[in-house]
Amino acid sequence: MFQRILAIIQKEFQQVLRDRTTLIIMLTIPLMQLVLFGYAINTNVRHIPTVVADQSMDHASQAYLDDMVNSGYFDIVATVPDQNGVIQAIDDGTARAGIVIPPDFAENVVRGDAQALVLVDGSDLFTSQSANAFATIIGQEHAINIVTQEIDRAGTTATQTTLPALNALVRVLYNPDMKDLWFIIPGMVAMLLQTQALVLTAAAVVRERENGTIEQILVTPIRPIELMVGKIVPYVIIAMLNMFTVVGIGVYWFGVPFQGNFLLYILLAFLYVFSGLGLGLLISSISQNQRQAQQLMMLFMMVSLLLGGFIFPRYTMPPVIQAIGNLFPLTYFVPISRSIFTKGVGFSVVADQVLALVAYIVVVMTLAAITFRNRLD
Amino acid sequence: MAKSLQRLRALIYKEMVQILRDQRTLMLFFILPLIELFLFAYAVSLTITHLPTAVVDQSLDTRSRDFINAMVNSGNFDVTLTLQNQQQVIDAIDAGTVKAGVIIPPNFAEDVARGNGQVLILLDGSDSFSVESGYNAASSIAQMFSLQLTAEKIQNSGTSLASSVASGNLPITTTTRVLYNPDIRDMIFILPGLIALIMQIIVVTHSAMAVVREREAGTLEQLLATPARPFERIIAKLVPGMLVAMIDMAVVMAIGVFWFQVPFEGNILVLTALSILFIISSMGLGLVISALSSTQRQAQQLSSIIQLLAMLLTGFIYPRTTMPLWTQIVGDLIPLTYFVRIIRGIMTKGVSLSFLWTDTLALFVYACIALAFAALVTKKRLD
Q: Are A240 and A369 members of one domain?
């Protein structure tokens, strides 16, 4: 039995190694993603190009604008006379945000009802989110500083010692600087392993069927289960190697900390790869030709990318959508990967997901074997 | 000229028959965009409110309740769990049952009165969108709450400012207004970019595959033996892909506008004209791929790399302003970069062509280069 499996493994390996372009593409895509997320993509937008319409030009408006600029979120690129000028600049794209300060700002501040308007370009997602959030926060901070100074000046000795009344500490666990790459890498490992498992196996069975070589294999003493195992092994090795590359570069080059138990991680990743391969084999057994298999696989990858929790949080999705997400192994491994990689927690926390993965493998493999047998008749 | 038109008609007819015969691919071209649209619409939320939150209130006095109420009333935090101590909160975040935790130590009211009240807010840093929304909201709520407490306490000290602050008014109110998308609805961000992305995917894959398939099937030589000129063949290949892409654009846009209520502010005729320019550019990109690959498989793999780059670098989701120069340049090589700005400009901002002429010019140049390159490639293949 082992001899037969070994023979198949050898054959599959040769086939994989011979198809150079596929191999190179499989290896470069994850690296490309890693480099792009590492260097190019930044969702926390700073230095937003901003135009200013300061109709007061007094010390209060100047102080307000200084605080905005010093925060690092807003870079003043131009000054315009009024609100229309601001909207025009945002319309033609020279600025993403605009600050409008109406006349008599300083007097209004003293009276306590000064208004500043921040306009934000709403056609650009992350820019508008950052601009919206930080304009509010910085504006509030500035106002609070004024109040504090005022109170200080007028206040008795008793009030001076009681400032501030409350000290709120916001602490971000696991990722204190909120670096994008720290969010991305554990999810990317999950995405990568599933993609590779699917791409590699989805074509494996159909190709043999298309070429007519599957009959040749079937007349040999090899049993279907041996065929499946033999087909899977080379791809498991390739997928795992890729995982090591991504984790290695992430940890040693980009400095993303690996908090948990690496051995446990490898073990569970190994289990996860099997679930992906199972899904791939199922696709392969359902499809009539390579083209169909490839299209089905692309569809699955796209759906699981959106629904698996890799990028977009799952708890905000409606239950039906969550249920669709449950059909893909990615959904189970993303929390496992984040838990061990980023959070550094142990097996007990992810036990449910691991159990789900095991069940998934059993179901998918059984389905694949059944459809495969039906197809043969 | 008349002969040329005749040949062109025959070639277009052939391409149409080919594309109609491959019904499964055709179905995919029409169904995939709809699946993407509905998934994005119902699954993707980029602005997170109602973070599931665990609360540890070791004081249980009026002050601590006020603080928790302030957090809940902001709409950003939903208390889903009440726990006893900080360790339990960390465990709950570890296990993923909550995304945030608020810990209020004992004697909160007295500490606040003495001026050293402490609150600890913990956030799950493994989930990017949740943490960013949560961080900003928590800082801002805590700050405001603190100020109100301070002001309340010294209200009797006399300044009018203090009393107005205590009732929640600051001397400066910063109002932010998000143009074009006042309620920050995700669909308004996503739809224009998604339409552009879908069109590019369809045109690039179609044109890349169409040429390679003929080469693989050996029918390319037969075509070359006919009097059809390279340029005519390119145009013939372009037409069916363009039709499919335009229909997709119309369907997705109609559902977006009428079902999901995404406003269409600009001129649809201008957009249609510019999308033809975009389609020609994308087709050029597809032909470059077909020139580089010798089998359908390779063509498909290369187009999926381009699609990945397009998703990440063209400004469809991630902002281009924060990218380093070299990735911006890579993004500039993909026609989607220009068209995302154009379609957002027309659909969302409702601006006219005069605001978009640089991108239009860039697309025009891109289309010219693409067509010239395509003609060159097909000529080369003759030898």
A: yes
- Binning pLDDT at 50, 70 and 90, where does residue B165 land? low
What pLDDT sits at residue B201?
86
Note whether residue A365 is domain-resident: yes
In a domain, A172, yes or no: no
Residues A316 and A268 placed together within one structural domain of the fold: yes
- CATH number, position A57: 3.40.1710.10
| Bridge partner residues of B53 (DSSP) | B79, B100
Q: What is the pLDDT of residues B328-346, one digit of tens each?
A: 898 999 999 999 999 988 9
Q: What is the predicted ipTM?
A: 0.75
Ordered structural domains, chain B, with CATH: 2-44+184-382 (no CATH), 51-166 (3.40.1710.10)
Does B235 score more than 50 pLDDT? yes
Same domain, A98 and A220: no
**Domain ranges, residue A71:** 48-161
Q: CB-CB: which of A49, A165, A178 is closest to B115? A: A165
For residue B383, is pLDDT > 50? no
- Using the Cβ of A109 and the Cβ atoms of chain B, whether some distance falls under 8 Å is answered with yes
Amino acid at site A337: S
Pairing type for strands A74-79 and B172-179 reads unpaired
Last residue of a domain, one of A127, A161, A195: A161
Q: Is residue A164 reached through a cis peptide bond, with omega within 30 degrees of 0 on the bond before it?
A: yes
Q: Please, what's the b/e burial string for A259-271 (b: 16 or more CB within 10 A of its CB; e: otherwise)? A: ebeeeebeebbeb
Asked whether B150 and A152 are in contact (CB, 8 A), the reply is no
Q: Specify the range with the lowest mean pLDDT, choosing from A99-113, A334-348, B77-91, B153-167.
A: B153-167
More confident: B272 or B354: B272
The answer to whether residues A23 and A81 belong to one domain is no
pLDDT one-digit tens code per residue, A74-121: 999 999 999 999 988 888 888 889 999 999 888 888 887 888 889 888
**Backbone torsions φ then ψ of B304, nearest 5 degrees:** -70, -30
Chain A residues close to B322, C-beta within 8 Å = 41-42, 45-46
Contact assignment for B180 to A123 by CB distance below 8 Å? yes
Residue B272: in which H helix or E strand, if any?
helix B268-292
Comparing alpha-carbon positions, the chain A residue that sits nearest to B179 is A122
Count of structural domains within chain A: 2
**Whole-angstrom distance, CA of residue B157 vs CA of residue B159:** 6
pLDDT at A161: 45
Q: Is residue A352 part of a domain?
A: yes
> Searching chain A, which residue's CA lies closest to the CA of residue B147?
A144
Planar angle of CA A309, A310, A311, nearest 5 degrees: 95
A91/A140 same-domain check: yes
What's this model's pTM, rounded to 2 decimal places?
0.79
pLDDT digits (tens, 9 = 90+) for B169-188: 677 777 777 788 777 777 88
Nearest to B139 among A29, A90, A137 (CB): A137
